[in-house]
Amino acid sequence: MMTLPWLDLPMVWAGLIAVAVLAYVLLDGFDLGCGILFAIEHHDEDRDVMVNSIAPVWDDNETWLVLGGGGLLAVFPLAYATILPALYPTMIGMLLALVFRGVAFEFRFRATTRGGRQAWDIAFGVGSTVAAFCQGLTLGGLVQGVKVVDRAYAGGWWDWLTGFSILCGIALVVGYALLGATWLIWRTEGELQERCRGYARTLGGTTLGLIGVVSLWTPMLNPAFQARWFGWPGIVLTSPVPVLVALLAWRFWRGLKRREEASPFLCALGWFVLCFVGLGISIFPAIVPPSITIWDAAAPPESQAFLLVGAVVLVPMILAYTGYAYWVFRGKVRPGAHYH
Amino acid sequence: MFGFDALALARAQFAFTVMFHIVFPALSIGLASYLMVLEGLWLRTGRAVYIYLFRYWLKIFSLAFGMGVVSGLVMSYQFGTNWAVFSDKAGPIIGPLMGYEVLSAFFLEAGFLGIMLFGMNKVGRGLHFLATCIVAFGTLFSAFWILSVNSWMQTPDGFTLAADGRFLPTSWMRIMFNPSFFVRFPHMVLASYLSVAFLVGATGAWHLLHDRQNPAARMMFSMSMWMAAIVAPIQIGMGDLHGLNTLQYQPAKVAAMEGLFDTTRGAPLALFGIPNMQTEHLDYAIEIPHASSLILRHEWNGEVQGLKAWPVADRPNALVVFWSFRVMVGLGFAMLSIGLASLWLRHKRRLYDSRVLHWAVVAMGPSGLIALLAGWVTTEVGRQPYTVFGLLRTADSLSPIAAPGVAASLAAFAVVYFLVFGSGVLFLLKLMAAPPHSGETGPDPQMPARSSGIMPGPVLVAGE
Fold first, then answer.
1. Residue B424: its chain A contacts at CB < 8 A?
2. What mean pLDDT comes out for the span B297-320?
3. Within an 8 Å CB–CB cutoff, is residue B74 touching chain A?
4. Which residues in chain B (355-414) have CB-CB distances under 8 A to chain A?
5. What's residue A339's pLDDT?
6. How far is CA B262 from CA A75, A254, A318, B283, B349, in A?
7. Would residue B158 be called left, alpha or beta, if left means φ above 0 and alpha means ψ between -120 and 50 degrees?
8. pLDDT digit string (tens) for A31-81?
9. With bands split at pLDDT 50, 70 and 90, how would you rate the model's confidence at B458?
10. Mean of all residue pLDDT scores within chain A
11. Which overall architecture, per CATH, does domain A9-305+319-328 show?
12. Does B123 touch chain A (CB under 8 A)?
């Protein structure tokens, strides 16, 4: 089997997995957000428009999650084998919620009775919200640290459940709802769009506040995080992150005030990217904080190289396909435009 | 909890989720090939009945495929949640194979599925047929990787064992094409084909019982009876080859399948019996003398090893394996009998008039899927007490998880799966209960489908 001594395969794969996870959060974030907004949007026609705006793309969005999970097993099996038992309840909760939401999406159009349709609408909204909350719990549970002894999870059943992980769960629900609302500002018009501007103001402020609290809490979890964020020379790298968040916040509110359509969504995406970068700064090179690095967790080079060949060929094709689907779907979604 | 330990519960959870899941890919594999044949025949002959049938079954395929994707998402994380040690140790080998399954087959299917489902009037007949062929090929390609992983767990090859117990790949060719892959893969593909043949046949028979002249019902019934007559005997032959392969590499599994405890020359074949693992005896046995030796060794007095040849801790549960194997083989021969009966009635020109045959086929509708599940139970329970046969014990593969947590999540899975996939199966049955008629329209391009991939109908509609 080929080996590529000039290539740091674990670094390459860590980058690819990070891209897959970020792609998942950005893409499924806005369509989960549309589901979360079902809690405050009750009108049938508006709900149809919301679902129609994500219908063409959400299946592909979720695929990044399969890629992340499958990829982790293939190239960082130790991370897969320690993160999943440690976060067992949050992962199972997320999967069941996504199952519910996935079929509800299809079944709500097939339901023949009013009650059936309402039941699947509830399944769609609740499934989206629970999935988002569980993802936040998972993220928080991972960042705060997973106890590993002898290549196995050594903590308890409820270790993931802390104030920090609950805060992350709430933050992700609010953040996804913001992505959903700004997406709808971009893709809809009329009263729905106007209401979404209102949601975006509230959700934007709340999201910023939560980002602030999580950002201040994170360095306190682990002295290494603290050294990286506030020590010299790390601060050269880390200080631009909050500055950029503030700049995007200014741009976000200007966009809302001037009734721009795309900029609030792009700014919200920008916040997520910056949070992700900040997370990377905190935990790198750990893949399972605090103790397991990407090199500890890496599969042998034969395994990583074998799958890399396929990824190098197929991931660009997938990205091109995705880009094409979004391009075809640019423009406003009108009531009854696609579905009845 | 209730006397079950975490190991038993984790096994139950995996068995439950994977048995729910495998039904949908099996339907997808069989239906995709059937749709390819229907569309090919339509392009060749121009007969409208083929395209009506194509559209009729396309709706069912779309729903089954979608449920396979949703239940498959769960599977990709189950290895880590419940079988962490297995994931850590075997991950370097099975991980990349499953990664390729996700990457290539899934994206191939997801991409071209939209054209297949909604694109007939958008891309032209030739290109549409190409998309259908690619989807059919994609489902087989998916099966290829998954069966490769499973076969490797049964007959591991092409690796070295590291000092810490991890399996490290040395030859990907020997890993992918390990010794039992060549029998397991065709056996599974044929099983998917037979499952779909009997579902299609039962649907056709049901509508023939109501209207013998319905041309689409006649066509689907006739085609599925050809499949039963031709594929059932091939599958029985394939099963025999599979058995010989298992005898070579996993003789304890064969002993459990036969309910044989003592190593015997001229071993009998038990038609009935209750293997008792405690007393090491096959109770209430009804046997055909020498038949087992004849089948397995192709010799009158061939020697067949009994379970006592292995320590108690290394034996699979014969009660389960013995019976699941008999369910599979029994249904296999019942399918063969239907196939032969259909040949006779076809010869007598009574294929569309024999109500006895129609009722029998309706009753046999789920037989292919039940046989397929029974076969998987046989091979998976027969691999016990190992996950990687002979090398890694199931008890040593488990995640560090506690019984109450696994029990709670198992209960949650049971509730959600019965609710969600129960509704899905009802939708499927509703589609199959509608008689096929001329002017079938296929999936509604106005309706979003979980399975429509990243290039669904609306893309094509909007792209006009």
1. 103, 107
2. 90
3. yes
4. 399-402, 405, 409, 412-413
5. 39
6. 45, 83, 56, 14, 51
7. left
8. 899 999 998 888 888 888 888 888 777 777 777 888 888 889 999 999 998
9. very low
10. 87
11. Up-down Bundle (1.20)
12. no
Predicted confidence at residue B324, as pLDDT, reads: 95
Degrees, nearest 5: CA angle B46-B115-B442: 60
Q: How many helices (H) and strands (E) does chain A have?
A: 14, 4
pLDDT average, residue stretch A141-166: 89
Q: How large a percentage of chain B has pLDDT more than 70?
A: 92
How far apart CA B380 and CA B141 sit, in angstroms, is: 22
Q: Distance between CA A327 and CA A312 in Å, rounded?
A: 23
Residue B179, Cβ neighbours under 10 Å: how many?
A: 17
Q: Which amino acid is present at B151?
A: S
Least confident interval from A18-27, B303-312, B367-376, B449-458: B449-458
pLDDT at A53 (0 to 100): 82
Residue closest to A332 by CA, chosen among A187, A199, A151: A187
- CB contacts of A303 in chain B (<8 Å) are 91-93, 95-96, 169
Task: List the single residue in B76, B92, B447 with the smallest CB-CB distance to A70.
Answer: B76
Q: Which DSSP category does A286 fall into?
A: E
Rounded to whole angstroms, the Cα distance separating A327 from B163 reads 52
Query: Which residues, other chains included, contact B43 with Cβ-Cβ below 8 Å and sequence gap of 6+?
Result: B125, B129
Share of chain B above pLDDT 90, in %: 52
Are B222 and B205 in contact by the 8 Å Cβ rule? The answer is no
Stated pTM of the model: 0.88
The pLDDT value given to residue B454: 41
Q: Would you say how long chain B is, in residues? A: 464
Q: In whole angstroms, how far apart are CA B76 and each of A65, B18, B244?
A: 10, 11, 32
ipTM of the complex: 0.85
Say yes or no: A328 contacts chain B, CB-CB below 8 A: yes
Kindly report the nearest CA distance between residue B417 and chain A, in angstroms.
9
Tokens of B88: 């850590």
CA distance B134 to B361: 31
User: Which residues of chain B are within 8 Å of residue A66 when distances are taken between CB atoms?
Assistant: 72-73, 76, 102, 106
User: Half-sphere exposure of B95 toward its Cβ, with a 13 Å CA cutoff?
Assistant: 40
H-helix segments, B348-433: 355-363, 367-383, 403-433
Provide the pLDDT for residue A156. 84
Q: Are strands B159-161 and B281-288 parallel, antiparallel or unpaired?
A: unpaired
Q: How far is CA B59 from CA A122, B55, B223, B365, B463, in A?
A: 25, 7, 19, 19, 23
Q: What is the mean predicted confidence (pLDDT) over B373-390?
A: 94
- Give the pLDDT of residue B456: 42
Task: Between B106 and A85, name the one with better pLDDT.
Answer: A85
Please tell me which of A224-233, A243-252, B395-404 the model is most confident about, judged by mean pLDDT: A243-252
* Domain residue spans of chain A: 9-305+319-328
Q: Which residues of B touch A59 (CB under 8 A)?
A: 69, 110, 450-454, 456
- B96 and A100 in contact by Cβ < 8 A? no
Query: Which residues, other chains included, contact A236 with Cβ-Cβ below 8 Å and sequence gap of 6+?
Result: none
B429/A contact by beta carbon, under 8 A: no
Which chain B residues are closer than 8 Å to A152 by Cβ?
84-85, 88, 400
pLDDT of residue A332: 81
Which residue in chain B is spatially nearest to A336 when comparing CA positions? B446
Residue the block writes with tokens 């689409």? B216
A134 touches chain B (CB under 8 A): no
Q: Pairing mode, if any, of strands B269-276 and B281-288?
A: antiparallel
Give me the residue label for tokens 């239906």: B31
User: How many DSSP H helices and E strands does chain B contain?
Assistant: 16, 8
